[in-house]
């Protein structure tokens, strides 16, 4: 009987904890847009507006800050607040990571395209392969978070 009561209390506590974060859990599972890691967050400017070498250099420095932030958010799901991640069950975390993985890949591709435009404007007619040596690499695939204890 005590085990049944204890199990009930544990389930009730987990349900209450998840209920407190239901809106955040829903956001990460269904509506995550990557605004916290996107290049636009850093306000580097439009690649086409980089008219001088100094403008382009400043843009590339800004891109470096973006790339560092992007890398720090990996593996996918790392930037979910701990209290929200703790309230998620395994299926919710998997769904959130799947959506976030898709968003991260899209962000990396868009950022690389913008960086390539800046490099082209700078007169560095480089292939995508040689350009990747000049800019911090962004992974095109991301990894699941290890299971939480």
In a nutshell, what does this entry contain?
This protein is mainly alpha-helical and 149 residues long. The protein has one domain.
List the secondary-structure elements in sequence, H or E.
HHHHHH
- The gyration radius over C-alpha positions equals 20 Å
User: Helical residue percent?
Assistant: 55-70%
Could you give the count of β-strands?
Answer: 0
* Main beta-sheet annotation: none
Cα separation of the termini: 27 Å
Which structural class do the helices and strands define? mainly alpha
Count of alpha/pi helices: 6
Unreliable parts: 11-16, 125-132
Strand content: under 5%
Mean pLDDT level: 79
Overall structural domain count: 1
Any idea what the shape is?
A: elongated
Helix-strand layout with pairing:
Blueprint: H1 2-20, H2 22-31, H3 53-72, H4 82-87, H5 90-121, H6 128-134
Helix pairs in contact: 2-5, 3-5
Please tell me about this protein's structure.
It is a single chain. With 149 residues, the protein is an all-alpha fold. The protein has one domain (2-134). Helices cover 63% and strands 0% of the residues. The chain has six helices and no strands. Helix 2 packs across helix 5 (90-121) and helix 3 runs antiparallel to helix 5. It is elongated. The two termini are 27 Å apart.
Question: What key phrases describe this protein's structure?
Answer:
149 residues, single chain, 63% helix, 6 helices, mainly alpha
